[in-house]
Amino acid sequence: MTTEASTDAATAFVPGHITGFFSTHPADTPVESGSRGAGITLTHGVDVCVAEGTGTTLNGEHVSVEPVDRVLDMLAIDVAVTAETPLPLGAGFGVSGALSLGTALAANAAFDCGRSENELISIAHNAEVESGTGLGDVVSQARGGVPIRLSPGAPGYGLLDGIPAPSQIEYCTFGELSTESVLSGDTTRLTNAGETALETLIERPTLDRLMTCSQQFAREAGLLTSEVAAAIEAVDAVGGSAAMAMLGQTVFALGTGLSDAGYEPSVCRTHATGASLRLRE
Amino acid sequence: MTTEASTDAATAFVPGHITGFFSTHPADTPVESGSRGAGITLTHGVDVCVAEGTGTTLNGEHVSVEPVDRVLDMLAIDVAVTAETPLPLGAGFGVSGALSLGTALAANAAFDCGRSENELISIAHNAEVESGTGLGDVVSQARGGVPIRLSPGAPGYGLLDGIPAPSQIEYCTFGELSTESVLSGDTTRLTNAGETALETLIERPTLDRLMTCSQQFAREAGLLTSEVAAAIEAVDAVGGSAAMAMLGQTVFALGTGLSDAGYEPSVCRTHATGASLRLRE
Hints:
The structure is a homodimer. By secondary structure, chain A is α+β, with helices and mostly antiparallel strands.
């Protein structure tokens, strides 16, 4: 097997991404489709190594990831994808988007495909949209920071802004929630709540307002589970600020909110940068 | 005096930015004005600390920086700006743009101005354009990586892409070159050469092509000085790739190009991220 030492191997790091609130915006083409909303990228993310070979492994286990296969189809190459992440799966951290974007970036570098960053982001975004696995993770993960999705779609279509405020982030996960099942249902109520939250955030783009908008969205969209609601209340009771990750049974808090409330969270930070390739030595 | 320990202080890091080629695009408003072109952001940059007080210092010396004053005017605050950088001044590293953008980001954080990242980038971009000190550094420094300016202007107007290829970068500076004096002269020849270079790069956005397009631009625009031309030739003679920084008497090379040619360059890397605030502990 080839390894990172091979000249035909490259590794990309893609930050995790938690969405606090969103609205869905389907369109005729994948590049125009997407979501509006806001969230947080994390220093906890996914390392994606691409080398000669076939098949995808995630944390040492063989997996089948539809958007990764779609990315490789669009680049017209067949390679081995080896990914590692400390993030929980299916719990609202954008692991699927990270695998797609990391595969696009690393495959382009390893096999000299000659695509630009916007082209690779578009390929990964389209793969996610067509697989039904995500609408806004890829563009957010390509940007980094605390991204606001002002308009939906791939680069050249969607417009992003950001909240200029780095922070420590804590998170706890109580279980999975299927993105596909929520997005394939009636999203009218959710989208109305998301549009209202975005209007409120844009008036004053701060972390505090991101959290209050996200809390209200989770309630109005009817997505709160009892464990998640209890954790958000517990953080609030100790003067902290927490919200639910869309879409997962996950609570995230600013600073030391979850620790202060007696939970044992994973601890990371907002990630200053978007997805990037590792410099080959 | 207040220090970084004050709650009303914040520090931003802004990467240096070398432009390889460009075309100028004046417009009726500063947000629409700018340049097209491509370049490289650097891990060598400017740390900008904003705190209560007045006046600007750079590497310990009091300085007057018109775009910094304009940024503070636009934010309607008066603060002390303390900046440190290892980069040479007036030599094509975007120090002026870095000071403007760093001041905007840090002042917003320290004094709770509630602006979004796009708003702060626009403020710094406008300050540079109105001061005549730069056209494309701020948007490139906000983005990071190896930025391609597809269309001119501030966020919402200009469109950026990037070359997905991190690299070690070496640079040597032989003296200053005034951005104002070049930009205030006849830029027709320069802009024609820049437009041709951009078309060629977009066909295949790789680092190698960025360097060859930049070399050709410097020749066609008539900006090469003898020391710069000699260094580019010397790097070429040992199989490396170097070009001239716009606008400065500076040569930059991929990998170990300048060392291999017998120069004693400063060594850094492409910077994965755009400008960012330091996380306050």
